[in-house]
Design brief:
About 70% of the residues lie in helices and about 0% in strands. With about 220 residues, it is mainly alpha-helical. Helix 4 runs parallel beside helix 6 (about 105-115), helix 5 runs parallel beside helix 7 and helix 6 crosses helix 8.
Length: about 220
């Protein structure tokens, strides 16, 4: 039935309704995420994300304002969901190519969350996520509408300076121990700055130097 509805909307050119349909199906999957996903659910998430990307590519110069807004807002919800699915499946090497298509703030928040969640993972897993970001995002950007790796790293570093009350017991009053735990968290965060970017990306030597300098001055 879902395939028939997709076909009918594609043939009639009712792309706005197609997006609404896709998100209504996918959001119901997300609401039931505590239940093991079926193969069909995973395929629908993947299909939805690729439909959004294809529509953005094919119609980039031919969209009416209302549909363009829907393709951005609803499209970002669908792509975001697919990135989180890939991340949950341990496919960190794939998240960058899709996350880079998201609006700036959504992309930055997503990568910050993923980096924090992988902070206690193996170095191999962390490096996969690092590569996925540094290969598909510009290191820095003069375009305020686009996410960049430098801003993601700065956000991660900034959050590492925050004392998170939920990490401590309610009767915790040892200030020295709090500072010790915060210093440990900062030290773990610095691992992201010590990875070497691949030589295939533009200005990789400059980027490597900037990351190492940032690691040395992080407080």
């Amino acid at each position: 039935e879902q395939h028939r509805q997709i076909e009918m909307n594609l043939m009639s050119g009712n792309l706005a309704h197609l997006l609404d349909l896709l998100w209504s199906w996918l959001s119901s999957i997300e609401e039931g995420q505590n239940v093991l996903r079926s193969r069909d659910d995973s395929d629908m998430i993947r299909f939805g994300a690729h439909i959004v990307l294809v529509l953005r590519y094919l119609l980039s110069n031919e969209m009416e304002d209302e549909f363009e807004e829907k393709l951005v807002t609803v499209g970002d919800l669908i792509i975001n969901m697919y990135v989180r699915y890939l991340f949950s499946e341990g496919q960190e090497e794939l998240v960058g190519v899709y996350a880079s298509q998201l609006e700036r703030d959504v992309c930055i928040d997503l990568f910050v969350d993923m980096m924090e969640l992988r902070l206690n993972s193996s170095l191999h897993t962390m490096y996969k996520l690092f590569l996925s970001a540094v290969e598909y995002l510009p290191f820095s950007s003069g375009d305020v509408s686009k996410a960049c790796f430098e801003e993601i790293i700065e956000r991660v570093l900034s959050r590492s300076r925050e004392i998170k009350p939920h990490q401590y017991n309610e009767d915790f009053s040892d200030v020295a121990e709090q500072h010790h735990l915060q210093a440990l968290q900062k030290a773990m965060i610095i691992q992201w700055l010590c990875f070497t970017p691949p030589s295939s990306i533009p200005d990789f030597e400059m980027i490597t130097g900037k990351l190492l300098i940032r690691a040395l001055i992080h407080r």
